[in-house]
Amino acid sequence: MTEHIFNNYNDAVNALRIKDLKQSLYDDGEVIMDQVLVCLHGEEHKKRRKLENKIFTREVFKYYENEVFPRTINETLEPYKESGKMDLVDYGFRVLLNLTADFSGVDRPEKTKKETEILLGLLKIFASGATLHHSTRDHEEVKNEVRNALKSFDKQFLKPSIERRKNLIKKQAYEDLPSDILTVLLMNEDDLNLPYDVLQREIAFYLLAGAQTSIHSLVHVFHEIHDWIKNNPEKKVKLKDDPIFVQKCFLESTRLHPSSPIALRKPVCPVKLPDNKEANLGDSIVIDLYNSNRDKKIFGEDANKFNPYREPPSGQNLYGLSFGLGMHSCIGRNLAAGVNSKPDTDPNNHHYGTVTMILRELISRDAIPDPNNKPKMDDKTKRPNWGYYPIIFSSKDKNCD
Questions:
Q1: Per-residue pLDDT tens digits for 63-105
Q2: How many CB atoms lie within 10 A of CB 399?
Q3: CB 3.0–4.6 Å: which of 32, 50, 217, 274 could bond 129 by disulfide?
Q4: Dist. CA 252–CA 318, nearest whole Å
């Protein structure tokens, strides 16, 4: 087997666009990722993605961003108001769990603290299985944990969610049905012919994908902003008054910190690569997103630094390649990151995405890193993610109103 590595932006772009390269980043994590959308290829991938794209529309995003997400964000912040402090990583898991459960179609009928803790624990186990390629733990131990977690998830959450939706599908008009992934899959189950275990993993995947990647993006951008503010204190007011600027901060941080530092592909037939070499069956294609996103030829001499005023070259995205490209670009990109703004964008009628919404709420409450409690990186993975990030609300009066 030959390993082909691409670590500059243009080669990475061209490699991601090769249609005969199949997703392989999650091969180690097939216990939770086998046959889920992101791992499919060719016509099977195209068919399922086209169907699930029905949920990823501007109208659905507008509904969630205006009606569902603000309430969920505030409800999840409520327990921290009195203490005025929290671990941002833990909070990220909690708030994004609630947001993505709604979107995925996972009901939480009790809405109790105990129920949330159970689902949160399952989510973290699913995440450890999906990122097994970078895990520092014993892989078989992780796989066994995931198998047991799937059984618990199925019994307590998925089966009741399916039953409720099937009853609704029988009784209600299409426009009155829930706008979530599970409902779409159930309405088209005859056409898709999904085995139950694949449906189970697909919903578990959406639950973890919507939360897992965004959690780390949230913590990274919070850290980058507060490092930047130290040298630009006069810009603090802009963070509070300019929501589009906050979104640009998030996109810039996402460029620097892709949720996975690499993309992995394997050829389904012999293919010509960007360096004019040929990849054969059994070869591995490593696309270094971390370094490609920091290519100085594309993003300038300060490409390694956080610069929310950065203007990318024409045709390139503020977030670089962090959401992928081509057939395997992230289907939930607009849910997490919103849409790109333009010079004439109305800030009162703009889709910002979940992470920017959470970030704006933290900024409005004067959240800062806890000066007496140092953050720590996650030592259970090789990915450069924060494992513990304590913050405080420096204006406690605003925090308690």
A1: 888 888 888 888 888 888 888 999 999 999 888 888 888 889 9
A2: 20
A3: 32
A4: 6
Residue for token digits 């920017």?
A: 356
By CB neighbour count within 10 A (0-12 exposed, 13-18 middle, 19+ buried), where does 321 fall? buried
Calpha distance 231→220 (Å, rounded): 18
Q: Which CATH number fits domain 26-259+332-399: 3.30.310.50, 3.30.470.20, 3.40.50.300, 1.10.630.10?
A: 1.10.630.10
129-164 pLDDT tens trace: 988 888 889 999 999 999 999 999 999 999 999 999
How many residues can be counted in the chain?
401
Q: How far, in Å, are 12, 301, 319 from residue 297 at the CA level? A: 13, 8, 16
Task: Show the CA angle centred on residue 175, arms to residues 169 and 180, nearest 5°.
Answer: 70
Task: Write the DSSP symbol of residue 381.
Answer: B
3-state secondary structure of 232: coil
Of 216, 95, 204, 215, nearest in space to 146 by CA: 204
CA 60 to chain centre: 18
Q: How buried is residue 150: exposed, middle or buried, by Cβ count under 10 Å (0-12/13-18/19+)? A: buried
Q: Is 280 helix (H, G, I), strand (E, B) or coil?
A: coil
